[in-house]
Design a protein that fits this description.
The complex is a heterodimer of chains A (411) and B (325). By secondary structure, chain A is mostly helical. Chain A has one domain. Chain A has 16 helices and no strands. In chain A, helix 4 packs across helix 16 (384-407), helix 5 (90-113) packs antiparallel against helix 9 (201-226) and helix 6 runs antiparallel to helix 14. Chain A is globular. The relative contact order of chain A is 0.23. Chain B folds into two domains: 31-158, 3-Layer(aba) Sandwich (Oxidized Rhodanese, domain 1), CATH 3.40.250; 188-306, Rhodanese-like domain (Oxidized Rhodanese, domain 1), CATH 3.40.250. Chain B is 35% helix and 11% strand. In chain B, strands 1-7-6-2-3 form a five-stranded parallel beta sheet. Chain B has a four-stranded parallel beta sheet with strand order 9-8-10-11, sandwiched between helices. Classes of the chains: A mainly alpha (411), B alpha/beta (325). Chain A binds chain B through residues 50, 112-115, 121, 123-125, 269-272, 297, 300, 302-303, 308, 310-311, 313, and chain B through 1-4, 7, 11, 14, 70-71, 73-75, 85, 88, 158, 165-167, 221, 223.
Chain lengths: 411, 325
């Protein structure tokens, strides 16, 4: 698994040869340490401000998330592609591990917060959205955007920290896609979304039933994937150095997945569900509003759960700090591992980034979140919308990849 | 929509906060008498954070959080507190009204509250919605046994007192409500009579000065609007946040008396409190009625009812027409 394979879709940084001299090794260690210290210091300072606990925690969770994503290369598209193109299921198994860990963690939190899930209430701010054709369309378009741009939004963010030449354009495209999503929201809402049910599994199955059903489904998927495991690689003769294993070598994806699931549940307990698009969407909405590109009113939008894009009134927001922490921690992790490789973007990278980004943005706006906010935070909270978005997303990316490879446009 | 309204309400509260801080920096003329009365929960409508922490396990005390921001309660509340969601639990969700007798009774029974229970309400945003909760409770006869935690969540957190994420389990009560009282609630007709000078009462409008003057119809981003700008004739403007100190506690009775007296309100005439949707004005209702003991009613129709009514007198100092000039 295989940076080698992922590189087919998007040039990925390659670990540098070990630095020959101490003079080269020192900055490589100092810079990441300085960034980590800066992040810790910023969180410390924020925590001391009135009402700053939430901001400090958001920054911390964002940094942890970015570190884990970079170390395990947790990119929904590349992991799916590893299986579809090379037949290696370990990446998808890592995603299943994230969902299983998150489901268990959420069940513990939700059971404490809402002892009886049967009423008409939903747990506070959990990402449980309306389920209908528009969600399927949003997931499929988001998936297509993943295939075109080379990854999903969260992966573009961690790749920004690695110096990816595509990521900046994909993120700009995402902002544009959000504006497009706002422009098409009202007709979609009035024609369909307003009448679609918001389905929360624990309401119908109870916490134990819903957890058992979800884990059972994950087990079936895992069983199917495990049959495709590649032959084990020969074990290295020397015992790996633990520091190198953590900071330089790639983590197995299942380990990253478990960490992602744990961060998701802990972040929900203390701050809110994981999501990476609220800030991008909110700022796009603000900018588009200032330019007069928004409808007068976005019907019903702000009453839905998900990555809320309600206009920001503060410079520092929890989601802004989460995303900032993610990118900076990924940058530090990439520097430490020798995987920070900025490159001049080619025309194709610019085009694919922008085009794929627009699709990602439209899908994330219309689907009320992305692979993190709707898929991960939705499924782990027991939302049917998470499963539906996820299926549509993998279908959309798989189909686009297949078409792209047939036409020779995608590798 | 509700969620956004809640955020916007929080935003408004945030903008008012610096105002209250500025006022709080004025030399405080605290008198020993009322301050001492505050510490005896039997007498005072307020309880201190210190008293509450000592009485967390008291049998006849029920603690209820009413916060604006969703998820605040669940991520950590005062140990033993129960949650009330203001925009669904305390109102009718289809017609515009406070929770009807059946809905309110079911809620209060579930919370294990009866007439001999000391109820401590608290919340975020300087107890804004907690005060509104106290006003709704008062409609059904739960008045003197309902207290506000002075300083609310803000002070409890600032003092680093413990929080809990587990939910309290209490035995349901057999509460039966008193018939809804009109003595604490003003209706459109009451307000119109005052506006037309048919009745000698005072209206206290607690919105921001710009809303009061008619420069704006509602705070930015608020969806629930009125067709006309301005205020009810004869009303005076004291923004609600002025009744609060920087630490979130309510000012001393002496300071409060001076604050309202400066606007011509001294308790000699009945008072009607009003705002945009009737929630913020509950805070001033609580201050006037429960702390100062003035005869006060809250007008929950407020500007979204009055400013939309046809053919009523309006004072529009700013001359705003259809939201512009």
């Amino acid at each position: 698994m295989t940076d080698r394979l992922a590189e087919g879709a998007l040039p990925l940084p390659r670990p540098h040869a070990p630095a020959g001299t101490a003079a080269r090794a020192l900055p490589r260690r100092l810079a990441p340490a300085a960034i980590a210290a800066g992040l810790a210091g910023a969180a410390w300072w924020l925590a001391g401000q009135p009402g700053g606990t939430r901001l400090a925690l958001s920054l911390t969770f964002g940094a942890l998330f970015g570190f884990v994503l970079q170390r395990s290369r947790f990119c929904f598209y590349c992991l799916g592609r590893d299986f579809l193109v090379a037949g290696d299921p370990r990446g998808l198994l890592g995603i299943l591990a994230a969902l299983a860990a998150g489901l268990a963690g959420y069940a513990v939190v939700l059971g404490a917060w809402m002892p009886d899930p049967a009423g008409t209430r939903l747990p506070p701010d959990a990402h449980i959205g309306p389920v209908g054709p528009v969600l399927v369309l949003a997931g499929a378009v988001f998936g297509a955007g993943m295939a075109v741009s080379g990854s999903c939004i969260s992966a573009h963010l961690y790749r920004l920290g690695e110096g990816s030449p595509t990521a900046p354009f994909a993120l700009v495209g995402t902002g544009l896609g959000f504006v497009l999503g706002f422009a098409t929201w009202n007709p979609l809402y009035l024609a369909s979304v307003s009448e679609m049910p918001v389905l929360w599994l624990p309401r119908h199955l109870g916490y134990a039933g819903s957890l058992a059903a979800a884990l059972g489904l994950l087990a079936v998927l895992a069983w199917a994937l495990l049959r495709h495991l590649p032959a084990p690689e020969p074990r290295p003769a020397v015992r790996p150095d633990p520091l190198r294993a953590v900071f330089t070598g790639r983590w197995p994806v299942w380990l990253g997945g478990l960490a992602v699931g744990a961060i998701g549940a802990l972040a929900y307990l203390r701050v809110g569900p994981l999501g990476v698009t609220a800030e991008i969407g909110g700022r796009s909405r603000q900018a588009a509003g200032a330019l007069g590109l928004l409808p007068e009113r976005l019907e019903g939008l702000d009453s839905f759960r998900g990555c809320a894009t309600a206009v920001r009134d503060a410079v520092l927001t929890p989601n802004g700090l989460f995303v900032g922490g993610l990118v900076l921690a990924s940058f530090a992790a990439a520097l430490a591992a020798g995987q920070f490789c900025p490159a001049r973007p080619t025309g194709s990278q610019v085009l694919r980034g922008l085009l794929g980004g627009v699709l990602l943005g439209w899908g994330a706006m219309t689907g009320l979140g992305c692979s993190v906010g709707t898929l991960l935070s939705g499924i782990t909270a027991g939302a049917v919308s998470g499963w539906v978005f996820g299926l549509a997303m993998f279908a959309g990316s798989g189909l686009t990849l297949w078409l792209g490879r047939r036409t020779g446009l995608l590798a | 929509m509700l969620r956004q309204s809640a955020r916007l309400l929080a935003l408004v509260a945030g903008t008012l906060l610096p105002l209250s801080e500025a006022v709080a920096q004025e030399p405080a003329a605290k008198t020993a008498g009322p301050a001492a009365a505050k510490t005896d929960p039997k007498e005072s409508p307020l309880v201190s954070t210190e008293w509450l922490e000592k009485n967390l396990d008291a049998k006849k005390v029920r603690i209820v959080e009413v916060s604006v921001e969703p998820g605040v309660f669940e991520r950590g509340h005062i140990p033993g507190a129960q949650n009330v969601v203001w925009h669904t639990d305390l109102v009718e969700t289809v017609s515009r009204d406070i929770a009807g007798p059946e809905k309110f009774t079911a809620l209060v029974r579930r919370l294990g509250i009866d007439r001999d229970t000391t109820v401590v309400l608290y919340g975020d945003n300087n107890n804004w919605f907690a005060a509104w909760g106290a006003w709704v409770f008062a409609q059904y006869g739960l008045v003197d046994n309902v207290k506000l935690l002075d300083g609310g969540r803000k002070k409890w957190e600032a003092e680093k007192r413990p929080l809990d994420t587990r939910s309290a389990e209490v035995a349901a009560s057999g509460f039966t409500p008193a018939p809804a009282s009109s003595a604490l609630r003003a209706r459109f007709g009451d307000v119109l009579a005052v506006a037309k000078k048919e009745r000698d009462e005072q209206i206290l409008d607690i919105r921001s000065p710009d809303e009061f003057s008619g420069k704006i119809i509602a705070p930015a981003g608020v969806q629930e609007l009125a067709i006309r700008a301005g205020h009810i004739p004869g009303s005076v403007n004291v923004p609600w946040g002025k009744a609060v100190n920087a630490d979130g506690t309510i000012k001393s009775p002496a300071e409060l008396k001076a604050l309202y007296a400066a606007a011509g309100i001294d308790g000699t005439k009945p008072i009607i409190t009003s705002c945009r949707i009737g929630e913020r004005s509950s805070h001033s209702w609580f201050v006037l009625s429960r702390i100062l003991g003035y005869q006060a009613r809250n007008y929950d129709g407020s500007w979204t009812e009055y400013g939309n009514a046809v053919g009523v007198p309006v004072v529009n100092l700013a001359g705003t027409v259809w939201g512009g000039k």
